[in-house]
Design brief:
three-stranded mixed β-sheet, 14 helices, alpha/beta, six-stranded mixed β-sheet, flat
């Protein structure tokens, strides 16, 4: 299962958000730096309204959503790349995740301490980015040194790696994340072998006060973060209120909906964040639907039918014959598999079929 790491400065709401996303009280959340030392890990279900629709069509009482793993990583501080604030340990935790959710404080509150003394989300983002870039730069320089002899001897892999590292080093030295360096597809594949932290897909979570959630689009801090995210990371920023999300953990679905309605918002911010993180990881969903259950299965975008079948069981991939497939919207419009089949919308797909998000599938296999 792919992991998304929740990162940021101390006291920006990371642990509170983690508790809300995982619907637990697993992570300690307190008003002082480094209340999280060892990373907390939790499974997060991906909200998907399509499951309830398919449940009615399949006439089943069981639905199983897709899931990803969230990791709550302790707050980084300026100088982390040089070991400040237990930085080296925390940086190693970031290196192990597949994507980053950077929580940024976008609210004023004198009772909640800010490690830098005042609220400035762009400065906070640049602090985190600088520490990650410096750590990556050191890793790149070490790697170049370690493969220099092999490259001089003509080793093809070492030469290919040296070529990419030679592009990465000046880019990082200029303070830019590795993710923003333009590389050819084969160079990108080599770059991923270095496990650079700034090469990980990133999304920003703008943490606002409860009273500001409904009007977050007018929040100047949020506006600045969205603009920065788009122009410096080519990514999106999602608005959440970690405290509200924490309050929702103990409510029923109906109570939560009523509470959010009173605040003037239609959906929990954490739901949007989870979905955005799911797509950030390059994931998509196909479904199986029957009387036993309706289930969402997670695959990488572009996966072929046999690989998608293998997510259910390795025998399905090994003995793959064909996939009976209908698009979600076609099935919903028709109301049943039988009606979709009558209209010619129920297809037989082979080994070269690229599974699409929302496909409802039944695999045929023989081992």
């Amino acid at each position: 299962m792919l992991k998304a790491g929740i990162v940021g400065l101390p006291n920006v709401g990371k642990s509170t958000l983690f508790n809300a996303a995982t619907r637990t009280r697993k992570a300690q959340a307190a008003n002082y730096p480094f209340c999280t030392i060892d990373p907390n890990v939790g499974i997060v279900t991906v909200p998907d309204a399509r499951l309830a629709v398919l449940q009615k069509i399949a006439k089943t009482g069981v639905i199983i959503p897709a899931a990803i793993e969230f990791v709550d990583i302790a707050g980084l501080v300026k100088g982390a790349s040089a070991g400040e604030g237990l930085g080296n340990k925390f940086l190693s935790h970031i290196r192990e995740v597949d994507a980053m959710v950077q929580v940024v404080r976008c609210f004023e509150d004198e009772e909640i301490h800010h490690v830098a003394g005042n609220v400035d989300p762009l400065r906070d983002i640049e602090t985190i980015t600088t520490e990650l870039v410096l750590s990556d730069l050191e890793a790149v320089q070490r790697k170049r040194s370690s493969i220099a002899k092999e490259a001089k001897r003509g080793d093809k892999q070492a030469i290919a790696e040296e070529s990419v590292l030679a592009k990465l080093e000046p880019h990082l030295n200029a303070g830019k994340p590795a993710l923003t360096l333009t590389l050819a597809a084969e160079e990108k594949a080599i770059s991923r072998l270095f496990w650079l932290m700034t090469d990980k897909p990133t999304i920003f979570a703008c943490n606002v006060k409860e009273t500001d959630l409904a009007t977050a689009d007018q929040n100047p801090y949020v506006q600045k973060v969205r603009d920065y995210a788009q122009h410096h990371f080519a990514c999106e920023a999602v608005v959440i209120s970690a405290q509200i999300e924490s309050d929702l953990v103990d409510l029923t679905e109906a109570e939560a909906a009523s509470f959010l309605s009173e605040l003037g918002v239609a959906e929990s911010g954490v739901g949007a964040l989870i979905r955005a993180t799911y797509h950030l990881l390059g994931l998509c969903t196909y479904f199986t639907a029957g009387e036993k259950e309706v289930r969402a299965w997670t695959i990488q975008r572009g996966d072929k039918a046999p690989r998608a079948a293998g997510v259910i069981h390795s025998d399905f991939e090994r003995g793959f014959i064909k996939a009976e497939t209908v698009a979600y919207h076609d099935l919903v419009n028709c109301g049943s598999v039988a009606a979709a089949r009558e209209k010619g919308l129920y297809r037989m797909e082979g080994k070269e079929y690229s599974v699409q998000d929302g496909d409802v599938m039944l695999f045929k296999f023989n081992v």
